[in-house]
Amino acid sequence: MSTWQWIGVVLVAVVAAALLTRYVVRRKDTKKVSFVMDALEDGELNFYFRKKTPLNKALNRIKGIYERRNAINEETSWSKLFRVMTHEIMNTIAPIASLSDTLLEAEEVDVKTGLETISTASKDLIRFVESYRSFTQSAQPIRKAVMVDELMERVLRLNKAKITEQGATLSYYPKAKDLLVYADEGQIMLVVNNLIKNAVQAGANAISITADLDTEDQTIIRVANNGKAIPIAKQEEIFVPFYTTKPNGTGIGLSLSRQIMIKHHGTLKLEQSDEKMTVFAMMFK
Fold it and tell me: What is the pLDDT along the chain (285 residues), one digit of tens a residue?
């Protein structure tokens, strides 16, 4: 074999090795990016790449951004939670303290009426604490394959008679066939039932449930109603634990519902609320 032929063989081998190396590296990088995306999606920031390649630096930087954002969001959430808890507790304790002082100091006071008032306020505070405990100790879902149509049929059977009695309608329209979710059936029914109850309390006379797939093949269940709209100023607060605008509300319905969806690796969000319609979306991944 001539010298030029040997040179040609070597060049071909070098190019082939370079292409193979590039293919292997790209494949590893693709797997790495896929792993990071899965980790971020599940909220597990348990990765760090020590080798100082441009891709690794970029992925580590993304992790840092998410950590800082999560810290800010967590601080904001706790701030809102403490504000609501403080407001609720002070609204209960202050009248008790004031009335107790009155009963101790005044001579002509209806003691029985005063004690009844204190008892009622104390029970309200106990109810609040029980609500907090039920929220913080919500059970982990026992997930299994569930057909959405069958799940919604059970929801309709459970709620339709009561909804009809109240002069409203409840309907379900699947927009895709044979939708399947991997979920705790009881917990998901709890979320849907809560959204239906909230719709009735908002004065809705038409409640519709739809189920569909989004562009990423994620199942979305939407609960829409034509009741009173949620004011824009309140829309960011409705998922804060114990925040409520209802006189006898506990303020845990929507926050607990969102927690359930998060534990299903999904979310619950308010998509729309105006004079036409209020729409909540349950998104499954």
Answer: 555 554 554 454 555 545 454 544 466 667 777 776 776 666 666 667 777 777 777 777 777 777 666 656 555 666 666 666 666 666 666 666 666 666 666 655 566 676 777 777 677 667 666 665 665 556 788 889 999 999 999 898 888 888 888 888 999 999 988 899 999 998 898 899 989 998 998 899 999 999 999 877 889 999 999 999 988 878 777 877 665 655 555 557 788 888 888 888 888 899 999 889 999 999 997
H or E stretch including 280?
Answer: strand 278-283
- For residues 224 and 251, membership in a common domain is answered with yes
Residue 217 lies in a domain: yes
Query: Which of 85, 175, 134 minimizes the C-alpha distance to 257?
Result: 134
Task: Give yes or no: residues 110 and 80 share one domain.
Answer: yes
Element (H, E) at 80: helix 54-105
Q: What is the pTM of this model?
A: 0.58
Based on its alpha-carbon atoms, the radius of gyration of the chain, rounded to whole angstroms, reads 28
Tokens 């991944």, located at residue: 285
3-state secondary structure of 260: helix
